Write a sequence for this structure.
DNA sequence: AATTCTTCTGGGAACCATCA
DNA sequence: TGATGGTTCCCAGAAGAATT
């Protein structure tokens, strides 16, 4: 098929990435030998960037309109598959990449998904797999591995996430620092295009951060109906990785029950699985449990006596920054992030000298991430910029520093949230004021949940440690107070970080 | 010279903040 | 209260830049 295109010298595919997909079963009738069809193609709009979805849509639209229906039907009925070169390139990229090595239960889920994908292929029935997993469980690692493996098995696979940050980062990691390879980038998509998908379903769609899916699509949230429904409909097999407590904007709708409902409605076989946390130390999720308890998201089941985790509260943002910068020196895997309580003006985005975040009484100021590359989380100079939830959700670091702003404080011994302290440029709570007028109770509940979830997301980005600075001294004191005291001298030598924690940052009475 | 890759730009609608 | 202006950490297409 591709050779025929070349020989005919048709400007059908100005970008050759489409050549990464070929017809597995070439149609018996070759339309490219038909002069009438060639003339038609010359008038047809060009496809761009190897967009398989687009190609299929285009073909299907024309079938519906009856133009060249015969011809287009033959192309469409030949199953698309990734070319050998794309398969080889992808597997090769994964091979030498430590970032994507799977462990323990990740492998189990991975195998289950691969099996289901094959089943969906073999039987033609629709399957949906829902994978629950909290922060640090390696959801994305499994997702990327699925993308690579299933592509290697000749399926057309797409990785989908609402946030562009993880997409950019994983695409870049797969490219292994080489110059950008667009055919890799095209495997990663946003969720906002599936509503217009027509024709044969894609083989596999892997949805990361499924809790962040929206109802409506498009820039103005005015297109489509429901992204979950549309993704299920557009794929033979879809995998949803989800953590319901990571919903961080008012528009996020992803929930396990919704996915299950839409999948059943579409006649799919629904499977569910759980990933467990890498935060686990000595067989417990102590830090996660403690944090959920401290933020009043979920009470801990039993008293936590030992965090097994490098958690520190700083009174001086300079010290916080210095500590994180020191950790970053090792592997460029430490970052400072902040709640969205400071304006992020458009003008400052390309300018590192604009310090948006100013903590006056501490004489500290720093810039938000600059939005110049889309890969803040792995760029070399990012330590000098503060990230927000948009640029780090779905990604993980070794150590994270979190600046907690005025939207979360302690009053009367309780953590309270205050959405009015959010910056005006923050859109994650856009619409809350109108809702507050109509239904104040509900508005408060939603805003409260979103703010707590946001800080939970920020404070769980560090696999090895989390350092916080609070603009509200009462909150700092509250967190310190709730920290379990180091247990009696450990029989084994504790980690050095934990020693320095006790020395540098003694608990207050 | 042709192909591949990057950067830029506009499309097009609702909602919020501001101000009169 | 109603009009107005300004915003949306988008996405696809296309022009321009880079590369082979």
């Amino acid at each position: 098929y591709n050779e025929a295109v070349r020989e005919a010298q048709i400007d059908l595919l100005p970008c050759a990435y489409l050549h990464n997909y070929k017809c597995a079963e070439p149609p018996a009738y070759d339309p490219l030998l038909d002069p009438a069809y060639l003339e038609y193609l010359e008038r047809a709009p060009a496809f761009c960037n190897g967009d398989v979805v687009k190609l299929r849509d285009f073909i299907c639209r024309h079938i519906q309109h009856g133009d060249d229906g015969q011809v287009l039907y033959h192309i469409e009925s030949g199953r698309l598959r990734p070319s050998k070169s794309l398969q080889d390139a992808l597997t090769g990229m994964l091979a030498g990449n430590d970032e994507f090595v799977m462990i323990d239960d990740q492998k189990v889920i991975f195998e289950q998904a691969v099996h289901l994908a094959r089943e969906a292929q073999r039987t033609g029935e629709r399957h949906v797999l829902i994978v629950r997993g909290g922060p640090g469980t390696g959801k994305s690692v499994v997702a990327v591995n699925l993308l690579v493996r299933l592509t290697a098995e000749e399926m057309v696979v797409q990785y989908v996430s609402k946030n562009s940050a993880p997409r950019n980062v994983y695409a870049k990691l797969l490219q292994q620092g080489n110059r950008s390879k667009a055919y890799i980038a095209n495997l990663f998509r946003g969720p906002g295009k599936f509503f217009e998908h027509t024709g044969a379903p894609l083989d596999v769609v892997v949805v990361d951060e499924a809790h962040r899916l929206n109802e409506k699509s498009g820039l103005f949230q005015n297109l489509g109906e429901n992204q979950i429904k549309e993704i299920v409909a557009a794929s033979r097999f879809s995998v949803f990785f989800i953590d319901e407590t990571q919903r961080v904007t008012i528009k996020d709708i992803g929930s396990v029950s919704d996915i299950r409902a839409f999948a059943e409605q579409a006649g799919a076989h629904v499977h569910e699985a759980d990933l467990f946390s890498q935060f686990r130390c000595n067989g417990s999720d102590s830090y996660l449990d403690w944090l959920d308890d401290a933020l009043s998201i979920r009470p801990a089941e039993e008293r936590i006596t030992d965090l097994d985790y490098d958690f520190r509260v700083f009174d001086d943002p300079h010290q916080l920054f210095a500590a994180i910068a020191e950790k970053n020196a090792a592997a460029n895997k430490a970052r400072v992030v902040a709640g969205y309580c400071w304006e992020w003006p458009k003008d400052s985005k390309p300018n590192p000298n604009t310090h948006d975040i100013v903590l006056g009484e501490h004489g500290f100021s720093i810039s938000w991430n600059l939005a110049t590359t889309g890969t803040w989380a792995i760029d070399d100079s990012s330590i000098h910029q503060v990230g927000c939830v948009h640029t780090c959700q779905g990604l993980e670091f070794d150590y994270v520093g979190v600046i907690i702003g005025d939207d979360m404080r302690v009053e009367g011994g309780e953590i309270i949230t205050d959405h009015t302290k959010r910056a005006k440029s923050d859109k994650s709570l856009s619409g809350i004021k109108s809702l507050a007028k109509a239904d104040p109770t509900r508005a408060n509940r939603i805003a409260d949940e979103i703010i707590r979830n946001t800080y939970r997301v920020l404070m769980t980005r560090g696999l090895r440690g989390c350092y916080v600075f609070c603009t509200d001294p009462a909150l700092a004191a509250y967190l310190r107070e709730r920290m379990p005291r180091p247990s009696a001298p450990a029989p084994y030598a504790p980690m050095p970080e934990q020693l320095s924690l006790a020395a540098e940052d003694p608990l207050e009475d």
User: Anything to note?
Assistant: Residues 286-504 of chain A form one domain.
